[in-house]
Here is the input.
Amino acid sequence: MELADLAEIVDNMIVQHDYPGFEVRGLKLGLPEEALKMHAKVFVQALGHESIYVKLAALRWLQERPGVAKSYMKPIAGLLDNSDEWVRMEAVRTLERISSPLQEAVEKIADLLRDDNVEVRKTAAKALGKICSRKSAKSETIVKSLHDAASDQDAAVRWKVQKALRQIGEYDS
Here is the structure.
């Protein structure tokens, strides 16, 4: 099976689940077994597909396989700049599950603490807490970004940032 097959499967599933008032990007598709058995390279190719839904399906597939995702950190991190907030959030969640993501990817996640979208900022804060608590050395840049985000206008973002700072031992009330 190839990328076109995966795209067709995803498109068909999206059409079946789409209805007014439902945010279909939030649907975590349970791909059929034929799609799940596709080679990892098909899902990596899907990261560059024009369809947001295909990108999201690929990112979510990679989230369940952090060992595989580790080999493809750069294309995943490239999606942190995507124009779609759901793609940015799922890219963050995918990188969060990798045992030791590249420092440049973690710094790009820290940049998302200033994203226009509240959900992206919350997702970035949560991920930084998890990632940095696993790392032996914390980057001063990331800690500074978290401290700056601790005064975010959104209370939920502030709470996630404070939790992240506590996780990495940098919280000072």
The CA atoms of residues 1 and 50 lie 18 Å apart. The longest helix spans residues 118-134. The two ends are 54 Å apart (CA to CA).
